Amino acid sequence: MTAKPLSVAFHIGAHKTATTHLQRSLRSAAGQLAGLGVQYYGPDTLRLPGRSLQSLFGLKHQAADDLVNRSAADQLAGLRKDGHRLVFSEENFIGALNTPNGRKMKCRYKVADARITGLSAAMGQSIDIHLAVRRPTAFLNSAYCQLLLGGRVQPLKHYLKSHGIASVDWVDLVSRLRAARGVGAVTVWRYEDYGTLFPQIIAGLVGQDAAASVTPPRRRVNRGLSAAAVAQVLEQAGDVTGENSARAARKALPVEDGHPPFDGFSEKEHAISDAAYARQIAAIAQMDGVNLLRPDLL
Question: How far apart are CA 71 and CA 24, in angstroms?
Fold first, then answer.
């Protein structure tokens, strides 16, 4: 299989855009993909100690001793095995979803382009980027709920002071990635179109010949918090017992039982955000070297 030149595809997220669903789809087909020359690596591998891409390719000093002594070429050969395509999926590579200690986030994923450039240089390989974007208000609702699930309890208005809508600028992110050295093709899709575009997304990642090996899980992977669950978490913020955690509230007051999903924005705020989102998508569609996947073009 090594007669074919190596290509690298990297699904970098963004967070809260069905990343886990996509990763589980790829992981479940990993054996079949390997037989077709496509090696897949996701969070189940890349988040192990010493196994992150940063560690493997010397981008930061967190590698285990037996791995850090291997050259980048050896690392690449070890990942490639006898295949012709590497597929990575790890949204944490481009940065955190929320800032630590409540620091203000002016720009989402501000180091994404530099990190991709560093990885490409270390590999000696151009990297094709695959990215999903999402409606800003929905993205922030989900990011806020993730904060609660992580145990950092605060009202939404406090969260938005440091993670406001202005930080969700997908045009900025895509343009920086497109301009980054070492980046090959850039493919973007809207989270809202994920279900419809799933076959095209997979084909772009693993190649058309291998795409039939990947099927989506039947059930939704990560469930969000209901409005009632968020209210309970905030009400019990002073009680740190396990019974009052956001995860327990999600289980006790699930969206699946008819509890409305959490939404911290008004209709007017959604409308303003949606108009800005539409302008961002239109701008991304016009970028040279960016392939925006769209259901109307199927």
Answer: 30
